[in-house]
Amino acid sequence: MIDQHKHELSERQMAILTFIHEYQIIHGFVPSIREIAEAIDTTSTSAVTYQIKHLVRMGYISKVGEVARGMILLAPAYEAIGTEAPEDTNLSMMRAELLALRVENQRIRQLYEERVKKLERERNQLSQTLSMLKYRAIKQLEGIFEEERVS
To answer: Which CATH number fits domain 4-86: 2.60.34.30, 3.90.380.10, 3.10.20.70, 1.10.10.10?
Structure first.
């Protein structure tokens, strides 16, 4: 086993790195936070998130945006778990970035569509208000002309 003090990693952090690596080999992508929590025998996804953020700060993992599976093991992580970093690490990074961009694009599209619907509702409300004001103005003018004719 690798000397954990050399890498300043706790047993839990080592378990997380090892699980991410093994999961990625089997499935072709990294696990979700919940899957990592289950693998290291915890029910707390916030504890896993905390550990992952710490691993990011320490330079073992790169996180791409706020995407659930947007993590990439960096060279120090492979060194810590005692395996060689794959040659396609850069390709993995690009895939994760692409995934993050797709998610961000979906989020922006959803915000755009919500804004368009809101603007359409506001336009309809303004149109109704304008019609009502026109109607009132016409009725008032008819009343004035009626009074002038009578007098």
So the answer is: 1.10.10.10
Q: Model confidence over 64-119: pLDDT tens digits?
A: 777 667 788 888 898 899 988 777 665 666 676 677 777 778 888 999 999 999 99
**Distances from the Cα of 108 to the Cαs of 9, 48, 88, 114, in angstroms?**
37, 28, 30, 10
The one-letter amino acid at 42: T
pTM above 0.90, yes or no: no
Q: What is the pLDDT of residues 114-150, one digit of tens each?
A: 999 999 999 999 999 999 999 999 988 888 877 777 7
CB within 8 Å of 60: residues ≥ 6 apart: 7, 9, 13, 17, 73, 74, 76, 77, 80
d(CA 83, CA 18): 10
- Rounded CA Rg of the chain: 30
